[in-house]
Known about the structure:
Blueprint lengths: L1 H9 L15 H27 L2 H21 L7 E3 L2 E3 L1 H21 L13 H5 L8 H22 L6
Antiparallel strand pairs: 1-2
Amino acid sequence: MQAADKDTATSPIPEKETPVEPQLTRGERSSLMWTSGFSVTFLIIALITNSWNLLILHTIAVGSLGGLVHEFAQSQGRIFFFRKERDGLYLGSLTGMILGTVAGLLVIRSYVQPQISGESSPNSTVTERITQNNQPFGLAVTLEIFFAALGLKGVAEAATGQPPRD
Length: 166
């Protein structure tokens, strides 16, 4: 009788099953790799062009980075090209870079045109109007470009979305 008690006392207790996370597909892994690579590249370009006062390249890099950050926030970088899902159209990283660049160029348009208000002379260069106290472009312009890019991609995807159906 003791042997039977011993067997029941040492029998393993069923453990809780841990949820298995879905594995990334080959396309998702590739997209994640490309999106991460582009993000690092655009970050480096943004840092370099900021110190060299290259406004257009800086705008393209920061705008593209804003679109890519939105893609990381939404799909963790797993969608490179657009994809149709039940709840709408996901634009992906490539479209995020394009929309981010467009948003950034729209932001700096006001800096490129001469100021009518008289703050700066129409003959001053773009870099002279943007730089303040000999600092490259300034954090305000960079953040303005970044958030415009982030927002444009978000609005574009929200416009293509559909409410989920039960």
